[in-house]
Amino acid sequence: MNTRQMAEEYRLAHWAGILQERKESGLGVKAFCEKAGFHQNIYFYWQRKLREAACRELQPVANAGNGEVLVPQGWAVCERKESLTKESGLSIEIGKCRINVGREANNEQLLMVCRMLVSLC
User: Structure pTM?
Assistant: First the structure.
């Protein structure tokens, strides 16, 4: 990953946090932007950029005869063959990277680890 890509990833992550913050605040876009000190056009610009980035990462993948499913680039469609037990966890493999996640991990931790694996692989 070159410096331009890293800078873009940083900006996207920064604005993803701002959009999430607005959602959690319960405020409308206009009120949130006024409170945060920037114009709502900037908010909508970055919202569009985040959506475009998300769509670029999605690619169609055949889903075992059930049609196509969209998944992020470098990811695979997985099917659960057996139910998880209380002691078991999840194994995530992206490219040559693999990580085992215990059931005690929360969604934020899992999302952070997956993003890190994608950036490394």
Answer: 0.51
Q: Which residue has the tokens 């920064």?
A: 14
Residue 29's contacts (CB-CB under 8 Å, 6 or more residues apart) are 22, 40, 43, 44
- What whole-number distance in Å separates Cα of residue 27 and Cα of residue 6? 31
The domains of the chain are located at 1-57, 85-121
Residue 12 burial class via C-beta count within 10 angstroms: exposed 0-12, middle 13-18, buried 19 and up: middle
Q: What is the CB neighbour count within 10 angstroms for residue 90?
A: 14
Question: Residue 98 corresponds to which amino acid?
Answer: R
pLDDT of residue 87: 58
Which residues of the chain, if any, have pLDDT below 50? 62-64
**Which phi and psi (to 5°) does residue 94 adopt?**
-130, 115
